[in-house]
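Thread: Modeling a multi-component assembly for a lab meeting

Hi all, long-time lurker, first post. My supervisor asked me to bring a structural picture of a complex we are working on to next week's group meeting, and I have zero experience with this. I have the sequence lines for every component (229 residues in total). Could someone generate the structure of the whole assembly? Inputs are pasted exactly as I received them:
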Amino acid sequence: GAVVSQHPSRVICKSGTSVKIECRSLDFQATTMFWYRQFPKKSLMLMATSNEGSKATYEQGVEKDKFLINHASLTLSTLTVTSAHPEDSSFYICSARELGQEGTEAFFGQGTRLTVV
Amino acid sequence: GEDVEQSLFLSVREGDSSVINCTYTDSSSTYLYWYKQEPGAGLQLLTYIFSNMDMKQDQRLTVLLNKKDKHLSLRIADTQTGDSAIYFCAETRYSSASKIIFGSGTRLSIRP
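Re: Modeling a multi-component assembly
Sure thing. I ran the full set together rather than chain by chain. Output:
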């Protein structure tokens, strides 16, 4: 199946700093990528939908200035957590749909464990 | 209430069948999915079913969809220790630009 690569897999940062997470579709083109956040023992919460070449669509309650999303190409979307706070510590997962296959499966990255100290 | 609901835990004896249940609320759901998540890992798509299907079988996995009751189930035959994981039910809706909405996940544990 198609591969989505997420980097880094783990990151520790200090409060107040920013951290960037990359999501790449390795062998397909994705016009749409999704960013999820997973709290311990909880389900995945959709944060935003990243659209190539346009602004991301954020879910209700998600601060767009806090979680900056850039989808500059058909294979790369980035999530930047700005001015990180310990409450931002979480497991972030991206997913991507193949161009023209929006009705079927989405492929998920392996996730990024963010710890803010 | 939640759009997609699952029970949180299921314990099964090794070799028995596991049945994980899911209910959803939106009748415009187009695709329904089952994902598996092992500890500290991302999500692995196990199988999916289109909303006009009743059943889909893939080796040890059987998905049943009751669209009238908005009920989806995943049956794992001959459950093995490697099946221990969290299983997420998910849906996409025609009206939601292909967003995937997840249930809370069911933690499957296998006892000897």
